[in-house]
Amino acid sequence: MDGQTPCLVELLAQLHLDAAAFPVLFPGLRSASTVAQDGVRDPDSSASLSTTLDNEVVGKARTILQSSAVPDTAEVEGLLEACEAFAKLLSEKIPTIRQTNKVENTPALNLLSLEETHNDPKSQGRNEIPLTVPAKHSAAQLISSTAYKIITDSKIYITPKLLSTYVNVQSVLCRPGSLPEVFDLYASKPIPKLRTTPLRYTTPNPHKPTAHIPLPVAETALAAAIKVKDLPLCFDIIHYSVCARAFRNSKLLRKASVPIAGAILCPFAVWKLATELSGYMSNMDAAVATDVLFAGILAYVGFTATIGVVAVTTSNDQMDRVTWALGMPLRERWMREEERMLIDRVAGAWGFQQRSRRGEEEGPDWEALREWIGMRGMILDRTELMDGMQ
Q1: Which whole number is the average pLDDT over 259-283?
Q2: pTM for this model (two decimals)
């Protein structure tokens, strides 16, 4: 963070929040009620608390971003979790603070009095100052930019937990514009080598299965893009997540490796079974019985497995408005089902919610969505599947 970026102390002052209320994020601070009492007796204690916050939070972030060494992953995760906690507080109803006639109302005293006011039943009904909208937007921008600088720093390796936390931060703040860029960095960002001077990097393979964007993370990002009604952003999030080659490689490894291994080992197991069963047959030669049993059992297993594969790849009960175009290979349907599911979710968000009005949508965004879906081998609102058109 540079000197022009407001520190988190200013954020806390604007939100009237007490860092000691979050011991996980700010260890070592006293409770807000104790500090507030000391602040009333000693006006200098508020400045001392501000200094402590600056050392504990902003100082650590500045040290990580300006240092030439690779930071500890746990420390980076702690900073992003702090950003997530503040983002969630912003998204909720922020408690207000009380006014008194004895003490001047300042941001420092607002900071010190939050928890005491929140926990004191006698404070209910007193004059209160609500959090202004500009302050809330300024705080959201601060949290968003801080998290972005942390995740895009060249020295920081993006772990799955860091990615998930960052997506949660931007989604809660309704600022998902940077998520496609971060998804691309997650797969292709150079990995810093530990204990090297000067710092050296290794180029990762962006197509390896471990570089895929987890589906829950992609769904969270897409929900945020839908919430802000940004159609091009929805396209980019889908493109960099479930459409990536790494995601397909990961799905192939996770869900198809066991069936493929079973198909390879099946003939050997069937031959062993046929050999054992041929010993119980006395009406034909053992070798002939083995061949007949092997062919029969293998044909039964093969036909049954084929019917199962066709049933899985052609099922459409989960489809709402987006379906596959005719001629799409079954393997492509199975491999790209998550892509179709997310696109279907976008179409449902942009179109009419009433089923009786489906097909009446119009406008440049809807036409762009229809064209984009068609270019990906899918059909939006297939006529024969719409209500009343069967």
Answers
A1: 90
A2: 0.75
